[in-house]
From TrEMBL:
Signal peptide: none annotated. The keyword Isomerase does not apply. This is AraC family transcriptional regulator. Keywords: Activator, DNA-binding, Repressor, Transcription, Transcription regulation. GO terms for molecular function: DNA-binding transcription factor activity; sequence-specific DNA binding. It comes from the Bacteria. PANTHER family: HTH-TYPE TRANSCRIPTIONAL REGULATOR NIMR, TRANSCRIPTIONAL REGULATOR-RELATED. The keyword Ribosomal protein does not apply. It comes from Teichococcus deserti.
Length: 263
């Protein structure tokens, strides 16, 4: 049902179109793009959006902004409820030019769900007013730190993709450098230049993003910690709380209830 709603919203020619809905089992949407800008919001659960520049975790009370013609894939984790707004390309000039995660204000949430209720076009004045509110909210929404930028250097990207496939890998940076054919010092310097994070910080961020996905799928805190390579569960809980402001258990409960997860 949600896919049909999204298709109708994508195909329309209005300044603003919206759809809302959800599903239980995890669902994967392959890489694609739209001529319109898209704001994909999460009301409950979590989705992961992949772009050429990186991967983005979208927890409850947050949304990811995707500019027009920006290729992306989408995967939901656990019991997902959300909404999607499509903005005509001409109206995207004042909106962010690159993907980003934003915090969804109560006003934006309410406006998006109201737009998704439209069965037929309402009076032009009402549509235009609501569209203006939504566009202003997108333009001024604060960014949230749930992204994982990917390096573009082929050697660094090879390492990043190998770690994404096995976040629990315990090789040292020097081992990864030798495997990819790059000097350790060059790896360290270029990782910061291309992602904004040191190699160690990037790996830690990767594991925390994967932890969010696993928790949304219902995995226990202990199994998540061990599967991600943390031999000390208490250390993992402390790291998670320092990064997201809540313990993994409290964070998962808030996500299932559709509450904002600090970050």
């Amino acid at each position: 049902m949600l896919r049909e709603k999204l298709q109708r919203a994508i195909q329309g020619d209005a300044l603003l179109a919206a759809a809302a809905g959800g599903h239980g089992p995890a669902r994967v949407t392959p890489r694609h793009h739209h001529a319109k800008g898209q704001l994909l919001g999460c009301g409950r659960g979590l989705i992961t959006v992949g772009t050429g520049a990186g991967n983005w975790c979208v927890p409850a009370a947050h949304a990811v902004w995707l500019p027009p013609h920006h290729p992306h894939s989408v995967q939901s984790h656990g019991d997902y409820q959300g909404w999607s707004l499509y903005v005509a390309e001409a109206a995207c000039a004042g909106l962010p030019a690159t993907p980003r995660i934003i915090r969804v204000s109560p006003l934006l949430q309410a406006a998006a769900l109201r737009a998704a209720e439209w069965k037929q076009a309402p009076p032009e004045g009402a549509r235009a007013h609501l569209a203006a509110v939504i566009l202003d909210e997108i333009a001024h929404a604060p960014a949230a730190p749930f992204g994982l930028p990917m390096p573009q250097d082929a050697r660094l990207l090879r390492i990043a993709q190998a770690l994404a496939a096995d976040p629990a890998a315990r090789q040292r940076m020097e081992d990864w450098a030798a495997w990819a054919g790059i000097a350790p010092r060059s790896l360290s310097r270029r990782f910061v230049q291309e992602t904004g994070f040191s190699f160690t910080e990037w790996v830690q961020r990767l594991r925390l993003m994967r932890a969010l996905e696993r928790l949304a799928e219902g995995a226990s805190v202990t199994s998540v910690a061990l599967d991600l390579g943390y031999s000390n569960v208490s250390f993992f809980i402390a790291l998670f709380r320092r990064s997201f402001g809540r313990t993994p258990h409290a964070y998962h409960g808030a996500a299932q209830a559709g509450e904002e997860a600090p970050g």
